Please model this.
Amino acid sequence: MLIKACLNGSRRPGDHDALPLSPSALANDAHECRQAGAGAVHIHPRGMGGRETLEPDACAAAIEAIRDQCPGLPIGLTTGLWIVGDNARRHALIKSWTVLPDFCSVNVAEPGTEQLWDLLLNKGIAVEAGLSSIADARLFVASPFREQSLRVLIEIEPGGPDDPVKSAAAITRILDAGGVKSPRLQHGLGACAWPVLRDALARGYDVRIGLEDTLTLRDNSHATGNADLVASVAQLVSQTPARR
Model:
């Protein structure tokens, strides 16, 4: 079972004392998370003022720093459209990447998904499909890339009309009905992070945890950092019976 550490996300400087933003901080954090049980990391590289960026130099610096300190650890980058706000600009920036991550997450509901997916695959970057609703799941099932995904991300945010675990189950039913065979990783954000993660473990899915998703441990106490969160999940994994 994969535990992926999401190190920073869209968190702002100051949201948490241990939030890693610089390449060296990301590398140190990735190393600690690997030691705690993480098998991959997901990062949002930062530029001037700690702002999220898809600029090739910033992305390269973050990737190279992690690879230097954590050889062989798979590294994933975001492709969130909100970072640049324009699909053509996003496409151009990613096309100009020369130091490549192992995988990228793509939110299937965003405009330009098919073109972005094709670009990433042509560059040799594996793609995770981000699904946060039944509508997203239906789009993915009908897409030409459904058989070309590294894994499917079932991503649940708080504040929806339904219980977050039920929302995740609804997405799962659409994927099952559509015959999707790709590996699945399920995670939640904020208040639903731990309930959704526990449900993922019960289903035998891969999981994700880190300061991007939550600042608290499963007992609602303050997490000291990403490695603290990963260690807590690794303990849960060790206590979860393997599915046969």
User: Anything to note?
Assistant: The helical segments are 23-36, 56-69, 87-95, 113-122, 134-141, 164-177, 193-203, 226-239. The mean pLDDT is 95. The longest helix spans residues 23-36.
